[in-house]
Amino acid sequence: MTTPSKTATLNYDGKSFDLPVYTPTAGPDVIDIRKLYAQAGVFTYDPGYTSTASCDSTITYIDGDEGILLHRGYPIDQLASKSHFLEVCYLLLYGELPSSFQLEDFETRVTRHTMIHEQMHNFFRGFRRDAHPMATMVGVVGAMSAFYHDSLDVTDPWQREVASIRLIAKMPTIAAMAYKYSIGQPFVYPRNDLDYAANFLHMCFSVPAETYHVNPIVARAMDRILTLHADHEQNASTSTVRLASSSGANPFACIAAGIACLWGPAHGGANQACLEMLREIGTVDRIPEFIARAKDKNDPFRLMGFGHRVYKNTDPRAKVLKQSADEVLELLGVQDNPLLQVAKELEHVALNDPYFIEKKLFPNVDFYSGIILEAIGFPTSMFTPVFALSRTVGWVSQWKEMIADPQMKIGRPRQLYMGETHRDYIDIENR
Ligand code: CMC
Predict the structure, then answer these.
(1) Which among 12, 299, 318, 374 is placed 20 to 30 Å from 412, CA to CA?
(2) pTM (2 decimals)?
(3) Closest CA relative to residue 254, chosen from 148, 142, 156, 135
């Protein structure tokens, strides 16, 4: 951490307290309140962490007002158009773009870890066929700690490295197996001659009886979805991974915790919820009814795939994906699909409605990723697993950064207690 650049003064209860202020390389200044309780005897209150920096990091920077997303300083639109997923993985993990040799070596290391322990197949078979693939993924990724004993020691940098590569390499295999199991088809082994995105499509759509030819434009769109979801600063699932690992828990257990958090409809589950909403709307003429519901304070309904906690201008990832969506839909000749007609019209209506304009609500990354994944042929239940597999590198990079930080402490928030104060136990016959 840098040295303080200035001091903030807090006047409280007739006393004044000086608090160090850090100036980041980008973004707002940060007031350090770590010693506040010890000095002033007060806590700060910030449920939802809207004003709290939970860590210092050098991985990802977001400016929500300007719609900027940088990974290690590189803008996401440049990475999406010029780079590819595994190169972005290297950048996130190691801080710099790789040389050709470094990239080749990294790709080989990932490729050589794509198979999972054969005994894990039995673990999959223990789930009900109708289990949601996210449920299966939470269980199987957590269970990796029972299979890979030689990469559980978080104090050993080499074991951390091996665990990182295993997680990035095996996640597509696990996600594809969760899918295959849910539709009753045999598991398809990875093919190391294909690139990361094409191999994932192969494992999802190929069957022993028939080869699946991966269309390069579809593989490119898949790679873009992975690249655009790779990391996103201290979001809910990443913070979950950090909090879980702050206790020293093993990486597989911590990433399973991140997957569980991602599943919620306000986070990664939004892409599934968005497509389900489009299906529920069904036809363009029903859009006004759903827009009215989204605006009604007494109706909990929200337009899924719209709005973002941090982006209040535009989601830079959504901009890139919108273009990819147009390309893929044209390639697959599905522009006339009624669901996609509803999506296009809903986007148009919401972008021009004063409620959405005033509240700065616009389509987010999940709106367009859902449309592309639907066109590629994924069922909605696979949308969030695809997000989980993309975000694994972000979770792993943030986890590695945290564990290597000598200042790491177990995460332990405090609270504003509003319950009963001391009261004596009343025997049951007297209540
Ligand atoms: N539809 C209708 N109204 C909305 C929506 C929406 N999608 N999102 C926010 N609002 C309203 C909300 O009712 C509130 O109104 P008011 O000020 O009158 O009370 C105002 O906008 C601010 O909402 P908020 O809940 O305080 O905002 P937040 O920053 O806490 O929530 C969000 C961000 C993403 C959870 C929210 O916009 C949402 O629920 N969106 C739908 C789910 C979604 O698409 N999530 C994916 C996010 S992107 C991928 C990811 O990060 O995982």
Answers:
(1) 12
(2) 0.92
(3) 142
Residue nearest to atom 25 of ligand 1 (CA): 309
HSE, side-chain direction, 13 A CA sphere, residue 323? 10
Give, for all 431 residues of the chain, the pLDDT tens digit.
678 889 999 999 999 999 999 999 999 999 999 999 999 999 999 999 999 999 999 999 999 989 999 999 999 999 999 999 999 999 999 999 999 999 999 999 999 999 999 999 999 999 999 999 999 999 999 999 999 999 999 999 999 999 999 999 999 999 999 999 999 999 999 999 999 999 999 999 999 998 889 898 899 999 999 999 999 999 999 999 999 999 999 999 999 999 999 999 889 988 888 989 999 999 999 999 999 999 999 999 999 989 988 888 888 998 888 888 888 888 887 767 788 788 889 999 998 999 999 998 988 888 888 888 988 999 999 999 999 999 999 999 999 999 999 889 999 999 999 999 999 999 999 99
Active site residue 156: no
> Are residues 51 and 60 in contact, defined by beta-carbon separation less than 8 angstroms?
no
Which residues share a beta bridge with 53?
none
Atom of ligand 1 nearest to the CA of 237: 52
> Distance, CA 32 to ligand 1 centroid (Å)?
29
Helices (H), 333-414: 338-351, 354-358, 365-376, 383-404
- Return the biggest CA–CA distance within the chain: 79
Q: Is the backbone of residue 4 left (phi > 0), alpha (psi -120 to 50) or beta?
A: beta
Dist. CA 343 → ligand 1 center (Å) = 18
- Displacement of CA 320 from its chain's centroid (Å): 17
- For this structure, is 308 an active site residue? yes
Q: Which two tokens stand for residue 302?
A: 């929200």
Question: What is the phi/psi pair of residue 71, to 5°?
Answer: -105, 120
Q: What are phi and psi of 124, to 5 degrees?
A: -55, -45
State which ligand 1 atom lies nearest to the alpha carbon of 367: 44
CB distance 361 to 314 below 8 Å: no
